[in-house]
Amino acid sequence: MAWQQATIEAESSVAEALADALMEAGALSAAIEDAFAGTEREEPIFGEPGEPVDRMWRQSRLIALFDEAVDVGLPIAAAANACRIAMPAYQVERIEEQDWVRMTQSQFEPIRISDRLFITPTWHVSPDPSAINLELDPGLAFGTGSHPTTRLCLQWLDENIQGGETVLDYGCGSGILAIAALKLGALRAVGVDIDPQAVRASVDNAAQNGVSAQFCLPDETPDLKADVVLANILANPLRLLGGLLASHVRPGGRIVLSGILAEQAEELSALYATWFDMDAPVFDEGWTRLSGIRREAA
């Protein structure tokens, strides 16, 4: 069996409506992406956790999938008519049937964090079975180790966990940081996330890795003073959560922050200097990791 894939250029102001109309007109799927993706004109769009993205790209591209027998121009014309726009330009290509599971899995190779720490999907053999391997498959929760923000935090854990620490991961996503901390020698790890689905994914991932960690929603966060508090989220929640995160770090304990764009580093570092003696920022592909040591309460 084969399919037809239509690539349709659209103004961003009508892209979502057009995607919905394409589905109503018989498309099997419809996705929106930056029309300039992969070029120098590509526009990163960032949204804070739990909040909608408040803008789209200036120019969008719709990718719609149709059955092999469909005259693609007809549903596109119907969708354009429903949105009261002119017939958009489009291109069609034939998509042959493939083993989609194998093709998707082939895109996720083991990730080397350091000489002793790897992230290995369950369908791969680890490049180094003697190393510390985090078995983690791509899923619905953020945090597979491929993104610079997660990688920066994992590198910090690899370099700083000595053994016996209590770790709090605020915004745990897939649970990868809490799991890594335990496999590196931490005594206790607690992960917190606003998304119940992320909490469930974290529990499953911890079981997959043979470690025992506690994962919960924010209202269930235990009252603890951790040796290490990690927050790999984004700048806006980090601004709002400074006092809360600081309250969970024992005097002399460490905080590790990521999900921060390079141009936001100075502002966030100054904010957290209220409670911490901050280290120099570390950068990776336009993202920043901040860390610091909790001062004694005045």
TrEMBL record:
Keywords: Cytoplasm, Methyltransferase, Ribonucleoprotein, Ribosomal protein, S-adenosyl-L-methionine, Transferase. One of its GO terms (molecular function) is methyltransferase activity. Belongs to the methyltransferase superfamily. PrmA family. It is an enzyme of class 2 (transferase). Pfam families: PrmA. Methylates ribosomal protein L11. GO terms for biological process: methylation. The gene is prmA. S-adenosyl-L-methionine binds at T150, G171, D193, N232. This is Ribosomal protein L11 methyltransferase. It catalyses: L-lysyl-[protein] + 3 S-adenosyl-L-methionine = N(6),N(6),N(6)-trimethyl-L-lysyl-[protein] + 3 S-adenosyl-L-homocysteine + 3 H(+). The lineage of its organism: Bacteria, Pseudomonadati, Pseudomonadota, Betaproteobacteria, Neisseriales. HAMAP family: Methyltr_PrmA.
